[in-house]
Amino acid sequence: MAPSTILFLIIVYFGILFLISHFVSKKDSGNDAFFKANKNSKWYLVAFGMIGTALSGVTFISVPGEVGSPNGEQFKYFQFVLGNAIGFVIIAKILLPLYYRMNLTSIYSYIEQRLGIYSYKTAATIFLISRTIGSSFRLYLVVIVLQRYVFDFYGIPFAVTLLISLALIFAYTYRGGLKTIIITDTLQTFFLVTSVFLTIYFICQSLNLGVFDAFEAVKNSNYSKVFFFDDFVSNKFHFVKQILGGIFVTIAMVGLDQDLMQKNLSCKNIGEAQKNMFTFTGIFVLINIFFLSVGALLYIYANKNGIAVPTDLITGKPRTDLLFPEIAFHHLTLIPSVIFLLGLTAATFATTDSALTALTTSFCVDFLGMDKEENRNKPNIVRNRHFVHIAFSFLMFLVIVFFNTINDSSVVGMIFRVASYTYGPLLGLYCFGLFAKSKTVKDKFVPLICLLAPALTYFISENSKTLFFGYVFDNELIILNGLITYVGLLLISKPIAEVRRY
Question: Localized where (predicted)?
Fold first, then answer.
């Protein structure tokens, strides 16, 4: 597919998003619409749209690519997905009722009421840092794909491509915020899901395989191993590690994340929010099965046609996450290429627009108090929200430019891993709030605990083979992070009765 064709399709795609934004926000662009969609969202739209938010562009290209990774990952990711599903159910049954009972706009307001102002600001800051780094990294990896296959052809610098991307996202979200995103994410998820199914169809067609033949081909290939039970200590793919990691990563990075929870809190009531979560869970598991199947079929296709895994232009190392775009753009016909582009674009921008809205909401509510009754009718309050939105767009731009300057996948990967570490303290804070009900904390010391816990977790992770007889951590590391935070909070805790006397 020619770069001009790809560019034309991107322009048409954003034109549709702008039309949706205009019609959704023209009657109401106030803060209630931006922060909570006026608490009038349809649960089924939220459930479907959340798929696009949860499955970023990185998932779209990396999960299929990892199936044939030299590390032998195959379908091991599905173990993690099963853990995710359990985590979603826990969120629906425990956290959502808490948030609705307290009628929260920012979920971190719970920490303020339970533990104090320092704890509250710490929790909100953790989210702002984590989501800024994580979302920037996701957008960065996909902009690299667009840069390599489209914008390099026109001689457009990476920074300009990135600036245009963020400006477009800002333009269709700054007025309606969450109210707009509920609709645009539904459309983008439709493109994402459709692209997965049609990609499978077109690859099967190229391989002369029917539906059942494709199933057998994947099943009998070297890429379809799902469950790993060997060597619990040193194998990071082990079933128990992946399940536990999936559960607690989901609780921390979804249930304690303003981005994903903001959509749930826009439903009319707790019943609809829970229906949303249960429906979302089923779709999430199913769509990941198809992503993994796409990966297996891509490698079968590549092996049959002698297609090598693309390499990094700088380091020369294999980049499995570029196999999908390489085959879609250079080895399939026009329609499959268009389908891939729509899916990748939808997955990327559904994640980024949602993140920018959540970051803006958290800062406006948690640090500027825009949801408080005394501030709601202040002049220029909506204008101030626009400035915050612009500021986070620019911050994300700077972070991504920094990633691109480093241009070292191992260093950038470590930065992304550090971002995931920061959710551990959130897990510890909420566990303390929910389960240590007879205690509170010496509030001023909470920021220190939340700094020390990830640092100690990193030290233990790097030395786990020595400390724990060869044990290797994977996603379950967040449990250790949360546990260290919880113990630290216990050390600075005191009975609630003692606080009440003063």
Answer: Cell membrane
Angle formed by the axes of helices 239-250 and 477-491, to 10°?
A: 50
Is the separation of the CB atoms in 182 and 266 below 8 Å?
yes
Supply the range of the domain harboring residue 210. 3-368+379-427
CB-based contacts of 407-414 (< 8 A; 24+ apart in sequence): 407/314, 408/315, 409/312, 409/315, 409/317, 409/319, 412/137, 412/140
Does residue 437 belong to any structural domain of this protein? no
CA dist., res. 445 & res. 423, Å (int) = 18
Measure the CA–CA gap between 223 and 76, rounded to whole angstroms.
10
Q: Enter the tokens of residue 475.
A: 């996603």
- 267 phi and psi angles, rounded to 5 deg: -75, 160
Which residue, 331, 62, 57, 328, is CA-closest to 191?
A: 57
Q: How confident is the model at residue 199 (pLDDT cuts 50, 70, 90)?
A: confident
Q: Closest Cα partner for 159 from 149, 168, 151?
A: 151
Number of independent structural domains in the chain: 1
- Predicted structure pTM score: 0.83
Burial of 387 (0-12, 13-18, 19+ CB in 10 A): exposed
Residue 281 forms part of a structural domain:
yes
Block residue for tokens 């619990």? 232
Judge whether 54 lies within some domain. Answer: yes
pLDDT digits (tens, 9 = 90+) for 276-323: 899 989 988 998 898 889 889 989 988 888 888 887 766 677 778 778
Let me know if residue 255 belongs to a domain.
yes
**CATH at 293:** 1.20.1730.10
Query: 141-160: buried (b, 16+ CB within 10 Å) or exposed (e) per residue?
Result: bbbbbbbbbbbeeeeeebee
Best CA proximity match to 108, nearest among 131, 137, 86, 89 = 131
Which of these, 446, 412, 324, 426, lies nearest to 65 by C-alpha position? 324
Q: Looking at the DSSP assignment, which residues form a beta bridge with residue 41?
A: 267
CA atoms within 13 A on the CB side of 247: 11
Angle at 92 between CA 88 and CA 97, to 5 degrees: 150
Q: Tell me the sheet residues that pair with 441.
A: 493
| 318-341 pLDDT tens trace | 778 778 888 887 887 778 878 777
Q: Note whether 14 and 250 are within 8 A (CB).
A: no
